[in-house]
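User: Teach me something about this protein's shape.
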Amino acid sequence: MSDFINHLQERSAQGGYGVFGTLDIEIKSASSGQVSLAIKPDGWAALHDDEPTVHSGLLTLLLDSIFGFAVISSLETPTAIATIDLKIDFLRDVPVAEKLLVEARVVDAPDVFAHTEGEVREQKTGLLIARGNGSFMVGTKGPSFSTTNPEVTP
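Assistant: First, the predicted structure itself:
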């Protein structure tokens, strides 16, 4: 298991990792090039107060982030990456109280560009909510992935 996967699991258990620390996200599984997480959105994630469905912006954030985690986990040495293309198909609304399963995998990881695919499903029923793919540039300017200095926030 790569150092980044260990780092990701530790940070998730501590409630860390930027905005993910406020979302109560559980890393379900992580291996080289594949990451799965669960989240149960509440009212804060609603599209409108009178429409209690999950906002598509949250689904976009989740997929873009988990795609990036999958790419970084596939690298021999964790390094900064940047999203260069992101396409998401929103297939159906999902109520805010439903627990979601978000999965991503790297489908092609050359030295400079990596390509991913993944989906968001209702965890209980397996119903497909959204699917997408993304392309990432590897080795861009960005955060450190040092696990020796707890002051560093990737």
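Now, about its shape. Strands lie at 26-31, 34-39, 46-48, 51-54, 81-90, 100-108, 113-122, 128-138. The chain has a mean pLDDT of 82. If you'd like, I can walk through any region in more detail.
User: That's plenty for now, thanks!
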